[in-house]
Amino acid sequence: MNWSIRRILDFLIVFGRVGESIARHAGGIGLLVWRSAVSTFAGRVGFRDVIAQTYSIGVQSLPLVVITAVLTGVISSQQGGYQVSGAVPLYIVGSVVTSTIILELGPALTAIVLIGRVGARITAELGTMQVSEQIDALHSLGRDPVAVLGAPRIIAGILTMPFLVGTADGVGFLSGMISARATMGLGIDSFLYGARMFWHNWDLFYSLFKALAFGFIIPVISVHMGFLTRGGAEGVGRSTTASVVFMIIAIWVTDAMFPPLLLN
After folding, report:
1. Residue 122 lies in a domain
2. Which of 136, 128, 155 has the alpha carbon at shortest distance from 44?
3. Number of domains forming the structure of the chain
């Protein structure tokens, strides 16, 4: 009996700690978003800072996004051709590739690329500034770290993610079409015919809505975790790892919520 009570108490302790951690992070993120919005609409966010972060997040991420999109289109085309061979008309590959890239792989894989390249970097940068007391120095100078460091990154993420996802969608579609032509002999006209069969104009807006959501989630979590960093270099490593895990979970949970909300 005592053993059972002890197990229940241990479970309640762990559950309480997890709940407290979730509530603390949710509150911190909510406060960060509020302060970023206030700083933006009050004109305290530097335009040059936003441009610099837009270049860092968007332009410098473009080569990796394009490479990922090319390979995604090729793989989708080849696997689609394998699935439909001998069972249905080959032009269905056009529909499979288009739907797969636009609705799911374009936004999701671009988000994963940005988590690895941008999200981890932001957390490490801000975490290093936090443990080296550079953020405390901003406070002592009367400057708001959220306006100087946080808001520009969040704004840049929201602005650049739709551009990156749109680029990934287009590149993935073209590479899938070229791959289908090279490996299966599927003509361009047949591929486009298959792509048009199940195409809805809403699909593109759906992809870009995902991009906006992901472009908001990644910088918000990475900035939040960077500001929370404590404990020197080891703490920076822990914060960066935790940030990447949180971003991946948040992206997949958000991704799972989109179909029932926007595709029904």
Report:
1. yes
2. 155
3. 1
Comparing CA positions, the residue from 167, 157, 171 lying closest to residue 58 is: 157
Residues 6+ apart with CB under 8 A from 154: 33, 36, 216, 219, 220, 223
In-domain check, residue 7? no
How many Å apart are CA 4 and CA 19, to the nearest integer?
22
Q: Of 187, 199, 179, which Cα lies nearest the Cα of 82?
A: 179
Tens-digit pLDDT profile for residues 142-186: 888 999 999 999 999 999 999 999 999 999 999 999 998 988 888
151 within a domain of the structure (yes/no):
yes
Any domain includes 67: yes
Among 61, 120, 122, 154, which residue's Cα sits nearest to residue 244? 120
- Give the residue carrying structure tokens 């936004």: 107
114-131 pLDDT per residue, tens:
999 999 999 999 999 999
Q: Which amino acid is at 7?
A: R
Burial code (b: 16+ CB inside 10 Å, e: under 16) for 65-83 equals bbebbbebbbbbbbebbee
Give Cα 82 distance to the centre of its chain: 30
Q: What's the distance, CA 14 to chain centroid?
A: 29
Q: What angle separates helix 2-41 from helix 151-184, to the nearest 10 degrees?
A: 100
Q: What is the domain extent for residue 153?
A: 45-259
